[in-house]
Amino acid sequence: MHVPDGFFNVVTSISAGAVAAAGVAVCLRGARRELDDRTAPMAGLVAAFIFAVQMLNFPVAAGTSGHLLGGALAAILVGPYTGVLCMTVVLLVQAVFFADGGLTALGVNVTIMGLVTVLAGWAVFRVVTGFARGKGGVTAAAFLAALISVPASALVFTLLFWIGGTAPISVGAVAAAMGGVHLLIGIGEGVITAVTVGAVLAVRPDLVYGARGLAKPLVLRGADGESTPVGAPEPAAAPAGGRLKPFLLGGVGVTLLLAGLVSFVASPDPDGLEAVAENQGFGEQAGEHAFGGWALADYGEVGGIPVGIAGVIGVGLVLLIAGAVAFAARSRDGVRA
């Protein structure tokens, strides 16, 4: 759903940019409550994974494809504040290095693909986990959160385009078209999110922000009948270079595999926004990207770089930038607030 240059007028683009900047500023402060020296590398990995999976367009209807947005996934794995930061880094790298999403539309993209998906996804997740307990409940909540976050983002795009788009539209027709195709994309998003969250829960439940508090303390009863709660070791006690390192290395390996190899079989069909824009007559408003001639533009197609190589480069960029942002935003006392 990457919005190109030319879809929105100057006032709307600047206004969305201001909203995005304010949201990111709030999240930079809020992320201190979610990040420390142990969890900051996880944020870098989550951002890189979202970048890689966004390259894997999947068919959803005749001649239309979709891809992961990732806001709900990021919020569940690393927290809503950090999730917005992860999404912002992904969108920034895509816009600057890969000409994916317009530069003047960056504020719109951060707003609808970052803020909206994270807020909607996290809200649904919290509601569902309020009565669906355990790992199964978290996984089901992840599916529903991701499913709803995608059409929510599509409908906010429609509202913004109705307010400040550069072409007249029938808001009802566009809302129906955007909502319908992105509901289908949301099903795919829900499956990807549930599978990913379930996989992390299976091996490192302590690294799933949305699953904190699931583990019950172990209670030992002595011969005298007294109970002593011993609990599981605190997640924060895991050495940064010990048990966490194999998980991070494995996650990076899976991410590189997706971006470097699986990306070759991604669907070439236009995504939901592109298809709707073409069908509703406002696709021609898209402008030329300022960096459209760069070698990595369109994931290597402009420079003749194989998509897998471009994907690996992108994963590296996102991993480094998101990791640096997370370390800069983390709590300095080593303990979550």
From TrEMBL:
Domain PDGLE: 246-330
Protein name: Cobalt/nickel transport system permease protein
The species this protein was found in: Nonomuraea wenchangensis
Pfam families: CbiM, PDGLE
Subcellular location: Cell membrane
Presence of keyword Transmembrane: yes
Annotated Gene3D superfamilies: 1.10.1760.20
Main subcellular location: membrane
Membrane-traversing stretches: 6-28, 40-62, 68-93, 105-125, 137-163, 247-266, 305-329
Membrane topology field: Multi-pass membrane protein
Biological processes annotated in GO: transition metal ion transport
One GO term describing the cellular component: plasma membrane
Organism domain of life: Bacteria
Keywords, sorted A to Z: Cell membrane, Membrane, Transmembrane, Transmembrane helix, Transport
